[in-house]
Design goal:
Blueprint: H1 18-28, E1 32-33, H2 45-56, H3 69-83, E2 93-97, H4 98-110, E3 116-121, H5 127-133, E4 137-142, H6 152-158, E5 163-169, H7 181-191, E6 197-201, H8 221-224, E7 227-232, H9 233-236, E8 244-248, H10 251-264, H11 270-279, H12 284-287, H13 289-303, E9 319-323, H14 332-341, E10 345-346, E11 348-349, E12 362-366, H15 371-382
Helix pairs in contact: 2-11, 3-11, 4-10, 13-15
Bound molecules: glutamine.
């Protein structure tokens, strides 16, 4: 018998993601699932019809490695309109297996053993394992306070000759905060004159509230020239299970990303790309998203008024962080478990994303749910 247990693991401390853990706990205990971030309502029927039409029309074989030209053209036009920069459709845009596929390819393409990558904590949980599996070293910078602010002086102090990449997420998962124009300008100044690559995860670019403008890295010339910007159709068009995203980057970076993208997936789903190419012709399909989710955020916050949970309203993403310090001093992971098993409401504990798993008694609730689900969830929170 071969002894596979003695093989050295590439990720010895790697474990199943908190999203899978909490979602399966929710299923097992038939709890309302506000944990993993996905909508519990349907994607647009017109979009489904477009996918079906593409299948019937015979678009069922491999598309080009970097995506079909008409979709890359649409993405280029969308970015130019929104962020005033022109990405070349043939060499600077790639369709990927969700944003996760883009993030994996971007990190793997550039991170060598010993390279340092600055990540902001709480950090979305795919960055660090990917950095480590490539021999790189994540260098954490904890965001501060209720508003999850960034201390740019601390970032400056952590940059050195080994810093290869810096990862930002805006709007930010799991905190629901957004980077301001000032944040981006400070970052731009810090990176000036370096060869540091910026990985900018912007999957919630259209889910932003209270008239705040999304500050895409692509808007800032000193960032765009070094940025790999990742986006997600799943988040924008309510179909996370289709696993379709994309990234844009200057040609010199994209050439290297392609090598990894080709080796991991080669290309992504053809009929879905045909459908998105058509659907993106109508900007209202994504421009209405901020208002749509702002109503959900407001509804959720209104519904939970009078409970013992407190929190600053999310400024972007479809997550609301709530503090439960008035209820218990249990660890957030324990409380999240108990909330799921005993009270039938699943959420995500924030400590798992924090530096040294610091526990600030915070849980993340996904409000991309039907009003009926949000009402039932709020009822649970009122009883605690
Ligand atoms: N992005 C989603 C979240 O933050 C889920 C992603 C995943 O499960 N990999 O909940």
């Amino acid at each position: 018998m071969p002894d596979f247990n003695s093989l050295p693991s590439k990720l010895p401390k790697g474990k199943t993601s908190i999203f899978s853990v909490m979602s399966s706990l929710a299923r097992e205990h038939e709890a309302i699932d506000l944990s993993q971030g996905f909508p519990n309502f349907e994607t647009d029927a017109r979009l489904k019809d477009l996918v079906y039409k593409a299948m019937k029309d015979g678009y069922n074989q491999y598309p080009p490695m970097n995506g079909i030209p008409e979709l890359r053209e649409q993405i280029s036009a969308k970015i130019e309109k929104l962020y005033h920069i022109k990405y070349k459709a043939d060499s600077e845009i790639t369709l990927t297996a969700g944003a996760t596929g883009a993030i994996y390819a971007a990190i793997t393409a550039f991170i060598h053993a010993g390279d340092e990558v600055i990540v902001f904590k709480p950090a979305y949980d795919s960055y660090e394992p990917t950095i480590k599996s490539n021999g790189g070293k994540p260098v954490p910078v904890q965001m501060k306070g209720e508003d999850f602010c960034i201390d740019w002086q601390e970032v400056k102090e952590k940059i050195n000759s080994r810093t290869k990449m810096l990862v930002i997420t805006t709007p930010h998962n799991p905190s629901g905060t957004v980077f301001s124009k000032d944040d981006m300008q400070q970052l731009e100044a810090l990176l000036k004159g370096t060869n540091i690559i910026l990985l900018s995860d912007e999957v919630y670019e259209h889910i932003i509230f209270d008239d705040i403008e999304h500050q895409s890295a692509s808007r800032f010339p000193g960032l765009a020239e070094r940025a790999i910007v990742c986006s997600s159709f799943g988040k924008t068009f309510h179909n996370t299970g289709w696993k379709m995203g994309y990234c844009v980057a200057p040609e010199a970076l994209m050439k290297e990303i392609w090598k990894i993208h080709e080796l991991t997936v080669f290309c992504v789903n053809h009929p879905t790309q045909k459908a998105f190419a058509e659907y993106l012709k109508h900007p209202e399909n994504y421009l209405s998203l901020g208002n749509f989710y702002q109503e959900k955020r407001d509804k959720f916050l209104e519904l939970i008024k009078g409970t013992k949970f407190t929190g600053t309203p999310a400024r972007g993403t479809y997550y609301q962080v709530l503090n439960f310090a008035k209820i218990t001093d249990e660890k957030d992971t324990e409380f999240a478990r108990r909330l799921t098993i005993d009270h039938k409401l699943a959420s995500i504990p924030l400590s798992v994303f924090n530096y040294e798993q610091k526990d600030n008694s915070q849980l993340r609730f996904c409000f991309a749910k039907t009003d009926e689900t949000l009402e039932r969830a709020a009822e649970v929170l009122h009883n605690i």
